[in-house]
């Protein structure tokens, strides 16, 4: 949520950001939020409005869409990268939206090419083996697949392993380049760190909001068109589009690389127009487009909490789930009657130690888990189960096809009061914020000096 003449607090920058919007991954969030200086102006890459991808979907038909300092970006490159985004959104993107998204993918590929070229120019290398390892890690962690299955999946959705590996190479090259040429020259004083810690302690108990953002910059001349684009994005998000995917491809804030995740912020840190909208939002809700100085914001409330205050939802629960299947073809009336009898029977259980015995009398199954975080449960269940005492149960829930279930609370470990980030964590966050700013300036300079030809 950054624009010229606008300050904000952002999540700790992820130099090695997630390599695929479909993964829905994000960097780890620190509890502290550090002031981030004004953003640098965007580099001027002029992409004609009438850009068209020539050729068909035949991978053997390769036409140049852009030539960046002599490196060719083909229509196939754009198509395969776009396919990853379409897969993340389960194909729920209109033809018109795909046309706009294609242009954004081209811009991203141009930036990626510039980053790889710059790393090579200053002899920063990424070995093929490192790229392969990262590719295998993405396949395992985000898709629960081996590389062979991942290869097949990418081809099935219209992409390719080479396309994803190129994106991985670009991100690793840029990360390594920043580590060598930027990070060593970043300085943060002890006084700055202590000031952030003091501010956190002074704000104890106030509300904090974890936000996702999509920021679109505009000028007086482009305001109407940008507003129309923002409304189109909102429409796609309401229809189930991936916020992370849209933020990565459309947002002009530095948080685009982490799927738009701003981290934890307080209302006073946000522009007034955004603050007013966020105040009444509930987790999972969208707001926007919101007109702010310099452009438009779309915000998504991921979660909210109180600063340096223990959140009951972080309690670790010991639960037993008792399940009873329904016979095939049972009517709704019959299911309701069975569920009512099931609930009455389970109320006769004298605590968690008696559950298995009582469940066996009616043919129910029992599953135990003593490491369930309350916040990981569905919203309607969270508040109810936190009001239970050990041995008490929630009302039955379920469906005709999946049967009926009851949760019994067997124990609860309440969270400790959050003491906030330590000195080293705050120092690291401030340093990363400044690296992020320098990275934006670095990329802006690369764009400005690049020789780009379009077809």
UniProtKB/TrEMBL annotation:
The keyword Isomerase applies. Transmembrane segments: none annotated. Keywords: Chaperone, Isomerase, Periplasm, Rotamase, Signal. Residues 206-303 form the PpiC domain. It holds the Pfam family SurA_N. Gene3D superfamilies: 3.10.50.40, Porin chaperone SurA, peptide-binding domain. PANTHER family: CHAPERONE SURA (PTHR47637). This is Parvulin-like PPIase. It comes from Novosphingobium lindaniclasticum LE124.
